Amino acid sequence: MAAVLVISLSLFLIAVFFFLGVGSQSALKYFETRPQLIIYLKDEAKLQDIEMLQAKIQATGKVKEINYVSKEDALKLYKELFKDKPLLLEMVTANILPASLEISPHELSSVKDLAEELKKESIVEDFDYEEDVVSSLTEFVSALRKIGLGIAVFLLIISVLTVLVVLGMKISQRKTEIEILKLLGASSSYIRLPLYLEGIFYGLTSAFISWGLSYLAILYSTPFLINFLNGVPLFPVPVIFMLEVLGGLIVLGTIVGFLGSYFAVLRSARTMR
Amino acid sequence: MISFNKVTKKFGEITALENVSFKIDKGEFVFLTGPSGAGKTTIVKILLGEYLPSSGTVEVNGEEVNKIPKRKLFLWRRKLGVIFQDYKLFSDRTVEENVSLPLLIQKKSASEIKHSVDKILSLVGLTERAKLFPPQLAGGELQRTALARALITAPEILIADEPTGNLDPQTSAEMMKLFKEINEKGTTLLMATHNKTIVDSFKTRVIELKKGQVVRDEKEGKYHKN
User: Fold this and answer.
1) Which of A141, A177, B23, B142 is the least crowded, having the fewest Cβ atoms under 10 Å away?
2) Which fold has domain B2-218?
3) InterPro entries from the entry (chain B) (predicted)?
4) Cβ of B66 under 8 Å from any chain A Cβ?
5) ipTM, 2 decimals?
6) In the Cβ-directed half-sphere of B139, how many Cα atoms lie within 13 Å?
7) Cα-to-chain-centroid distance, residue B179
8) Cross-chain Cβ contact A183/B73 below 8 Å
9) Which pLDDT does position B172 carry in this prediction?
10) What are the counts of helices (DSSP H) followed by strands (DSSP E) for chain B?
11) How close is the nearest chain B Cα to the Cα of A1, in Å?
12) What number is the average pLDDT over the span B173-185?
């Protein structure tokens, strides 16, 4: 029971870190696919100038995609964005909204340089970029991976040690029984197999418990997270993904249970010929 | 069949056996006698492969027991029938479960196990007690359960370490009658004992140990030297 509790808790925490990691990675990808640099163009900018600027930007080789958003397109976007707030729509016409270029660079790091370069262009009014959001998220994902991996390794070691101690105590209690079986001609596998199976059973049971708990936690927090991560398409979590997580937890639980029982058996095997 | 050649066993400073040599032929009934601490159990444990001799060799049917690797020891132990001084029965298993254990370990079929258990329990007179647990049995019945378990694999050699140590004289005599019948069917029997009455009532070979040394080996011996 103690072993199942400890392994379940460890696997649950590992699953939580895994979800955080995968979620952050997906959020990062989402932000990366959005235009990171928006160039607002002056009202007097002619279509010919805009096309020249587009060509110039493409020529830098730093850009993956450029979209021209005309004043009319901007108005459509604005109306879509504030369709629930008619007051904000009343006075707005296409004329007061700037045309813009939405730029997605290949490398996130080039956003700032690109913005500085384009600032000098005569038809550029202003610009806006999301470098801060994406770079912060990149740093967060990287830190999360390192910390998560460290904590996961620590928890797995604790789990293996718990199985080792629990099964070690069981072996001690059954020492006489094991001795008798050996004297009656029982092979090592005959004696060890039930212990290995017991360790694996602990791991498997814990995998299912931790998976159930983590699934419940995700289902419970989905409405809140959908609101919190406005627009980031992470939810609802696909069932296939959760089944993959279950597979991973089963593998991890089995390894933990087997290693714990293996070391427990190894420790006790030294005491008797 | 069994051959001890200049076997010495030391536990640190303590010498349990010193230069012990003897041979036992197939079908013999041999008493290993001597006071407590003389080295009888050490000989049994060396035969079982529990202890390795400090020097000397132990051969059984030409196979050097002390050279059997640990991983193959179980195969050697399956060839022996052993009755332990403290019986070593599982108190949470019934008589028939205890007796069937060596066959279960050897992965015999359920029908084979049932047939053998019924036969052996009938031989030792425990058919009526088959479903009882060891704590529900009398001393003689425990001993017969241990004997049945030792015989269930039809071993060529039966080793008994103080088998009558905890029994009253009448039960001891009944047990000895059983041992004699088993020996007459061809099983080699090595019995460690310090039960004078039993040894004296049998006209058979006696190997006497004292302080780890063989002090007497007589073909038809008594407990004490004539």
Assistant:
1) B23
2) Rossmann fold (3.40.50)
3) AAA+_ATPase, ABC_transporter-like_ATP-bd, ABC_transpr_LolD-like, Cell_div_FtsE, P-loop_NTPase
4) no
5) 0.85
6) 14
7) 10
8) no
9) 80
10) 7, 10
11) 23
12) 85
